[in-house]
Amino acid sequence: MAADPSPAPTSLSFPRSTFAKLTPGPFLHAHLKQNPPIRPSGRTLTQFREQQITTGSLTHSHGSAVVRLGDTTVVCSVQGEILKAADIPSPPDESADNEDLLETLGLLVPNVELSTGCSPAHLPGNPPSTLAQSLSWKVRTLLYGSEIVNPEDLQIMFTAPKIDGEDDAPVPEVKAYWTLYLDIMFISLDGNPFDAAWLAVMAALRTARLPKASWDADREAVVCSPAFQDYSRLTLQATPVTATFAVFSTASQLKQRSEAESWVLTDPDTSEEEVCREAVTVTVDEKRVLGIDKAGGRVIGKEAVEECLKLTFARWKEVNAILP
């Protein structure tokens, strides 16, 4: 009897990339339940992605930086513009605190742009997304809350000449202010946009130089020196560093919380963010905690938060070493 020529049935299998797209949750879980846990990118649970900083790329701005955090790339430009004190509708009182002056006058104006084709969800020409507006607000809040910029660096003073016969010396007067516009543009987005955006802001501010500005009483205008040697750096009063952590949990409606497994992932990428329902962002300076922002879920506890703090302080040292 002749043998059956039909081919033997083959097992159905998918390549790794297809498995990750079809079932991202089980795909990540399959990696994390190994001993020791390893993420699909090959990183450990507490490992940050490699960070690269390039400054001075935009010659038309007063300061600029390009930051790459894994496959997330951000460009930040700092541009200073003059705001005359006479043009302010409700000028601040002379007794007003300098630290409140920045926020009262809005002298730091960040704007995040995601509609650059940086990811399939952010195509060119799209209106500002909720994420872009949220990032702009978070950057703005941290800029003012950390008091990073010295208000005196943004004041343009004028002292009138002393008039013969007057005993009192002229009092210096603020004639104008520098307003710093921080344009933050994402070239590519692969998770953790806030950490990348803030690192770009810090690097751009650290390299920003403003021209020497003086008040011309005859023309009643601000005059800036064109000489580069007259440009001066900003006096930054702090170096805040942020670190974001995502929490992956197997909890579901069919499984009790006590039976669920959970892992805290440092510096999550897009594939990890999509399957994590809880996130924590920690902001620290050299020796102080500036803020802990938590969103979604209730898995992470006190011990996990303390571990996130330790990792963030360790990252502060690494970032401070590579910042210009």
List the secondary-structure elements in sequence, H or E.
HHEEEHEHEEHEEEEEEHEEH
- The computed structural class is alpha+beta
Low-confidence segments: none
Q: Which descriptor suits the 3D outline? A: elongated
Percent strand = 25-35%
**Total beta strands:** 14
What oligomeric assembly is this protein in?
A: single chain
Please give the alpha-carbon distance between the first and last residues. Answer: 82 Å
- Proportion of helical residues: 10-25%
Provide the gyration radius in Å. 26 Å
Main β-sheet, in a few words? 6 strands, mixed
Nearest-integer average pLDDT:
88
User: How many distinct helices?
Assistant: 7
Set out the fold topology.
Blueprint: H1 16-22, H2 24-32, E1 51-55, E2 63-69, E3 72-84, H3 98-105, E4 108-113, H4 130-145, E5 155-158, E6 173-188, H5 193-207, E7 209-210, E8 213-216, E9 221-224, E10 232-233, E11 241-249, E12 262-266, H6 270-273, E13 278-284, E14 289-295, H7 302-322
Parallel strand pairs: 4-6
Antiparallel strand pairs: 1-2, 2-3, 3-6, 5-6, 7-10, 8-9, 11-12, 11-13, 13-14
Helix pairs in contact: 1-2
